[in-house]
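Deliverable D4.2, example record:
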Amino acid sequence: MKTREWLREFHAKYTKTKFLGICYGEQLICEALGGKTDMLQKRKEDPKFFVAKVEDIEFSPEFFEHPFVKKLNMEIPPKVKMIQVHGDEVVTVPEGFKVLG
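Output generated by the structure prediction step:
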């Protein structure tokens, strides 16, 4: 896939650039840079299965220290309600990456 190839090239060229991946973006970055994704166990048993729910997502304090978050110049609650619809998950995070939320 061209996007995975582009991510690898970009990461190799701009090693200090931070990435933020949400949902499929997280999975794409993960796979392109050496991590691993897989179907949820229930989806392996039933290919039509997807999680669909609203969940409180808790961000790490480190998330709020990133310049792109500080630029918002607003108070962000430590928990945010997010709608999730997915059937896959990140199993292994690429080396040097952290999960912040």
